[in-house]
Amino acid sequence: MNRNEIKNAHEDSVIDSFKRYSASFGNVIDVISKPEPPDAIITINGNPSWIEITDAFFSPELAESITTHVSDDKPHKSVPKEKRFCIDPDERFSSILESVIVKKYDKDSIGNVYKQSGSGILLVGIMNPFSSAKDLATSEKKKIEEAIKAKDPRFGEVYLYDVHDHIFHRVL
Which of 76, 82, 107, 154 would you call most buried, defined as having the most Cβ atoms within 10 angstroms of its Cβ? Predict the structure, then answer.
């Protein structure tokens, strides 16, 4: 599979998991289309909405190593040995997580979706060997709220999920 095919399969998997998660609360999500952006136009119990998916990797090197390992169109790049050490991983990832979320709030194409369709849902995959989405949803909530407080409300809901099990934890 090339990187684009992997990205599409990843998004489909996350959306399917979010549909099951929502169903546990009695909600029915139907995917209407996948226009890119957003990653999906949906209805929740018949009400229109949309979903955007992003991932927060512990480091750019880890992101590149994981994505090149599974794709056929790029040679695999391991994380260099000098990048395998980290002092204060919690603080480092806190900044990365905030940055990933703020980028979605600042992205013009997502702003256009918000202007046309109202608030949507942001799903953030956590790729961090040092903490879980559940812990981060609690520990980073105030920092994320502070980072986006002056921004438009393009995401009515923000969830973090661990990429290995797709268990969702609401942050906003």
Answer: 154
Provide φ and ψ at 46, rounded to 5°.
85, -10
2 CB-contact burial (10 Å; exposed 0-12 / middle 13-18 / buried 19+): exposed
Contacts of 16 by beta carbon, 8 Å cutoff, 6+ apart: none
Helix extents (H) in 32-132:
60-70, 89-106, 108-117
Angle at which helices 141-148 and 89-106 cross, to 10°:
30
Burial (CB count within 10 angstroms: exposed 0-12, middle 13-18, buried 19+), residue 72: exposed
- Do the Cβ atoms of 38 and 111 come closer than 8 Å? no
Beta carbons of 76 and 64 less than 8 angstroms apart: no
Domain residue ranges of the chain, discontinuous segments joined by +: 3-170
Q: In this predicted model, what pLDDT tens digit does every residue of 68-119 receive, in sequence order?
A: 667 677 777 776 677 666 677 788 899 999 999 999 999 999 999 999 999 9
pLDDT digits (tens, 9 = 90+) for 109-156: 999 999 999 999 999 999 998 899 999 999 999 999 999 999 999 999
